[in-house]
């Protein structure tokens, strides 16, 4: 047998080294992609459940009004149903304070696991609620309690989940990671609408009123335990672990309100146009199209669905773009575009009220909303250091949503009723864009990256 000298053996093994490395690289890349998907899924699943419930409740509002608020007058019953849904917004600031502080003191996992189970509890209560015919006044009281629980949990969801995403994001990818919060909202609205439309098509009105309206809530109930399982098996972000090890997480509420008031005000201002545009163009516009423009409901739903699909795709794109060119240019640019185009868009809709015009307007504003809301979550999270990030973000976001966003459909309706002008809601959108622009310009150095 021929002897192999050391030099020959070294040459042979050196040739094998690149082969080993070439196999390791794709394996490591696959693991990184899996970790990225798990992190994003863990964060957005609660937001998905919240907005899915929102869409379903709105879709079946008329059915719910008949079953739980039978006043004898359909309009009064519907108003009570909508008002009951609005009760949830009252609890959002409370949830923001309590659950936001929990996320900074006890950990992101503890807060996010709590929010999704509370949200699932509220969903289950609606899905299994006894009707007025079965329980009398206890039935509407039960629905109100469910909405209070859901509102409380929602108050801690966006802030905690956005902090979780930003802190888990690799360097230079915070905008992309955090943008999935907005993409999940649009996706959940779309899923809820499709769910409602499908049930309406396949079930008779009697079946829908007897049990069909409960199906999407029970489907949503499944999301809760799955989300809890995923969230309890995630890791705390490294930056948060370091802050906790350094003892920096004590009294996050006092620290946020004492040392980061300017940042909270800036975040509040940034959220105004975000929440007003979301609720006006993505939630209220189908109603506006039917009641004001006299278009068929099917047309309004298809056009709205197209806008939601664009938002799902483009929010992550603009989030990733903000990682390259910065958050501030995109936020200022798209807030300005919304301010300039809001009134002409509604003028065009009222002047040429047809399906094509509605679709074009909603697609254009879906792009504008994506351009603002893609980078906005990361920009707001970067206002705060890890030890107060969940608290500060939750307070700023939820107070703005409660004051400006949740009441946007009501304000739009009231403006039209008071003025008799179908263009009046455009001024509310203009005001929101102007307020956010002022906040962005005044924030100055507060809008900077923080680890």
UniProtKB/TrEMBL annotation:
The UniProt record lists the keyword Transmembrane: yes
Pfam families the record matches: Sugar_tr
Keywords on record: Cell membrane, Membrane, Symport, Transmembrane, Transmembrane helix, Transport
PROSITE patterns: MFS, SUGAR_TRANSPORT_2
GO MF: symporter activity
Membrane topology, from the record: Multi-pass membrane protein
Transmembrane portions of the chain: 40-60, 80-103, 110-129, 141-166, 186-205, 211-230, 264-287, 299-318, 330-352, 358-383, 395-420, 426-447
Superkingdom of source: Bacteria
Main location class: membrane
UniProt-listed InterPro entries: H+-coupled_symporters, MFS_dom, MFS_sugar_transport-like, MFS_trans_sf, Sugar_transporter_CS
UniProt keyword annotation of Chaperone present: no
Gene Ontology CC entries for this record: plasma membrane
Compartment(s) of residence: Cell membrane
Domain Major facilitator superfamily (MFS) profile, residue spans: 39-451
Name of the featured protein: MFS transporter
Species of provenance: Variovorax guangxiensis
